Amino acid sequence: MAETYDCAVADTRAAGLAAAARTVRAGRLVVLPTDTVYGVGCDAFSASAVAALLAAKRRGPDMPVPVLVGSWSTIDGLVARVPKTARDLIEAFWPGPLSLVLPHAPSLTWDLGRTKGTVMLRMPLHPVALELLRDVGPMAVSSANVSGQPPASTAEEARAQLGDLVDVYLDGGPSGEPVASTIVDLTGDVPRLLRTGDVTAEQVAEVIGREVALA
C-alpha cells in the first residue's frame, strides 16, 4: 500500500524522506515534487527499477528516462566530459528548469532506455527533491503520469494515475504551472534546443555566446 507524506510538516517530511530513501535503495519507485512538475523516480543505476518506472508510465525504452542530480559536481562522474558550454549553462541555470543532454561516461552500467550513449541531466530547484537526491545519489526521474496523460502538478494527481505502483509519495504542495524544463543537446558541435520551457533560447544563447540550433 502506497504511503503519502506531507512535506509541509517537519516531522512528516523527515519521515517521508527517510521512507523515500529506503524505497529508492530497495529498487522501488517514489513520487517527488520538483520545480517543474511532479516526478516518478528510482535509483538511476537499477535496471529493474527503471524498467518498473517505464512500465508504471506505460512507456517503452524508446523514450529514455532523464536523470536528476543533487549537486553540480555529480555530473562529473556521469558524463564522458563536461564541455565549457555545459559548465556555463550549469552555473547560470542550475538548480533550475534546464536539462542538458551529454554523452554519458562509458564506464557506467545503467539502462535508462535507448539513449544512444547519452544522458539527460538536470538539477531541480526544489528543497525536497534536492534533499532526497543528496541522500541517495542520481535518480532516474520522469514526469509522474501515465504516458499520454497530463503531467501531475500535485501528489494527489500523481497518485490518481500511478496508484500503488509507487511505494512513497512525497507531497510538496502544488508545483504551479506544469511547465516542463528546457532541453539543450550538447552532444554535437552545435548546441541544439530540443524543447523550450522556462529557459528561453535567447537566454541560453546569451550565456554560451552563440546561437542555439532548433531541433
UniProtKB/TrEMBL annotation:
Keywords: ATP-binding, Cytoplasm, Nucleotide-binding, Nucleotidyltransferase, Transferase, tRNA processing. GO terms for biological process: regulation of translational fidelity; tRNA processing. One of its GO terms (molecular function) is double-stranded RNA binding. The lineage of its organism: Bacteria, Bacillati, Actinomycetota, Actinomycetes, Pseudonocardiales. It holds the Pfam family Sua5_yciO_yrdC. It catalyses: L-threonine + hydrogencarbonate + ATP = L-threonylcarbamoyladenylate + diphosphate + H2O. Belongs to the SUA5 family. Its EC number is 2.7.7.87. This is L-threonylcarbamoyladenylate synthase. Gene3D superfamilies: DHBP synthase. The keyword Nucleus does not apply.
